[in-house]
Write a structure and sequence with these properties.
With 128 residues, the chain is mainly beta. Helices cover 3% and strands 51% of the residues. The chain contains one helix and eleven strands; from the N terminus they run E-E-E-E-E-E-E-E-E-H-E-E. The strands form two sheets. Strands 2, 4, 5, 6, 9, 10 and 11 form a seven-stranded mixed β-sheet that branches. Strands 1-3-8-7 form a four-stranded antiparallel β-sheet, with no helix packed on it. A hairpin with a 2-residue loop joins strand 5 and strand 6. The longest helix has 4 residues. The chain is globular and about 40 Å long. The termini are far apart.
């Protein structure tokens, strides 16, 4: 079973950049599809970005397309979320999550419940 730990959050001005990291410990990291979710104040947890265990074209929610980039380094058991041109609406706790490669990923990658392993979250605050 994987264990996940996020890092890289902080407080920044609008227009700034941050890079979040999620380090995984445990076995078979390359078997997992991985993703980032976020939960803003008073909001439900929402999908941000995902990337398959084999890499390939990532998935993004519309509000972050062109600004955020998800990537993974299987050798380092880590994946990343590069966040550019941050906006106040991006303020949230960001969570990394992993899915053990169960079927139907391309249709359900944005569902929180398909991810079985979660990090503890890291706060991102963007002030305007």
């Amino acid at each position: 079973q994987l264990q996940l730990r996020e890092s890289g959050g902080g407080s920044v001005q609008a227009g700034s950049s941050l890079r979040l990291s999620c380090a995984a410990s445990g076995y078979s990291f390359s078997d997992y599809n991985v993703a980032w979710f976020r939960q803003g104040p008073g909001k439900e947890r929402e999908f941000v970005a995902a990337i398959r265990r084999t890499g390939g074209i990532p998935y993004y929610t519309d509000s972050v397309k062109g600004r955020f980039t998800i990537s993974r380094d299987n050798d380092k058991h880590t994946w990343y979320l590069q966040m550019n041109s941050l906006k106040s609406d991006d303020t949230a706790v960001y969570y990394c999550a992993a899915d053990r490669g169960s079927p139907g990923y391309s249709a359900t990658y944005y569902y929180t419940h398909r991810y079985t392993v979660w990090g503890q979250g890291t706060q991102v605050t963007v002030s305007s």
